[in-house]
Specification:
By secondary structure, the chain is mainly α. The chain is about 55% helix and about 5% strand. The chain contains nine helices and two strands. The model has no long low-confidence stretch (mean pLDDT about 85).
């Protein structure tokens, strides 16, 4: 799966923990044990089933499944809401919201809002904040990078990396360099250690792809 589809899928399937593109990049390139591995030049999610970018309805249906764990009695209502969405061909947030009861809407409004803002989030490479994304459920939310170490995927870019993934890695690196305020506390030495190594590796890989 290419970079754009991978990021879009993350934004739609995990809206409450994947706020924007840079948030997903941090998960893909920096987070240890993120469920991804390098395969044929792409970061591929480890899964036993084929993965794809969900439709709007599938993403909201998925969000409903999470909420049903908290409130099993919403099963029937959520099933009816999905049916109404598909049957009526709703394609914007206002129409989708109208298909919910007040109770269902209150349970899902943050996730639905973020899912409906997917295209905007997909092209957002700035530091995510609660001011720009009021749907973030954590009142004291503050974005911080995961950190860098020998196990980070950005520190292990493969020889056969696809051009779009190499471009994404360079974009992640530039963000790390330009936003030291997002670095994890007491890990400045690790960032300063790995940044030049990653720069050199990206330069090497770009020269091979020219």
């Amino acid at each position: 799966m290419n970079v754009q589809d991978t990021v879009k899928r993350m934004l739609m399937v995990y809206p409450s923990i994947s706020i924007n593109a840079i948030d997903v990049y941090d998960h893909l390139f920096c987070t240890i044990g993120n469920g991804f591995r390098w395969e044929d030049g792409e970061l591929v999610e480890i899964s036993d089933v084929p993965l794809k970018v969900p439709t709007l309805y599938e993403a909201i249906d998925n969000a409903m499944q999470f909420k049903m764990v908290e409130d099993p009695y919403s099963l029937f209502e959520s099933t009816q809401a999905i049916y109404r969405m598909r049957h009526n061909g709703y394609d914007d947030q206002e129409e989708i919201v109208k298909s919910f009861s007040t109770k269902m809407y209150n349970m899902l409004k943050e996730s639905v809002s973020l899912i409906c803002r997917t295209e905007e989030r997909l092209n957002d490479f700035e530091v995510p904040t609660r001011k720009r994304y009021p749907e973030i459920f954590m009142k004291n939310y503050e974005f911080n990078l995961y950190g860098l170490c020998s196990y980070s995927e950005i520190c292990n870019l493969p020889d056969d990396i696809k051009p779009d993934w190499l471009e994404a890695a360079e974009q992640m690196l530039n963000f790390i360099k330009n936003h030291p305020e997002t670095w994890r506390k007491n890990q400045e030495a690790e960032y300063n250690k790995w940044i030049p190594k990653i720069e050199e590796r990206i330069k090497e890989l770009k020269s091979k792809q020219q």
